[in-house]
Amino acid sequence: MNSIMISSFFDSNGQLLTNLITDDGKSNIKDVIDFLNQPIKERDYRNSKLNINQLRKFYDTFLKVYNNKVEENEKKIQLLMLKANAEYSAKRLNTNRFKEFLTNRINLVVSKSGEDFTKNLKALKLHLEALVAYYPKN
Fold first, then answer.
1. What confidence tens digit (pLDDT) does each residue in 84-98 have?
2. Is 29 within a domain?
3. How many domains does the chain divide into?
4. CA distances (Å), origin 50, targets 96, 99, 106
5. Is residue 75 in a domain?
6. How far apart are CA 111 and CA 99, in angstroms?
7. Within the chain, where are the H helices?
8. N or C: which end of the chain has fewer CB within 10 A?
9. Which conformational region is residue 65 in: left (phi greater than 0), alpha (psi within -120 to 50 degrees), or beta?
């Protein structure tokens, strides 16, 4: 697996891609975890393993956004701030692959509006929930 970037949470029939929430099939959640924790060999672009506590912190912040009873635009702003927090953490902790992962997923959500926004936000919640569930404990 060379990349963790996706272009959609859904297949052509509008169904959630099951590989995003299970350990079955190609490019499944465990493959994503392996990719996130793989060191990068390039000199100027390091990657450190994200620990479960750091991941849970991002997930908890996401859940606050998800459960917040505000308008769609406010949720988009909060998601963009979560993306900014991942950028900041990547600079401090060298968790560059997680930053790329989260940025990709958040961009998919904030690019939608209305019912598509809500559907993608829920898909991201399930995806992150599975990531936390399968993530190795320290």
1. 999 999 888 888 889
2. yes
3. 1
4. 9, 10, 18
5. yes
6. 18
7. 29-36, 52-67, 72-93, 96-110, 115-134
8. C
9. alpha
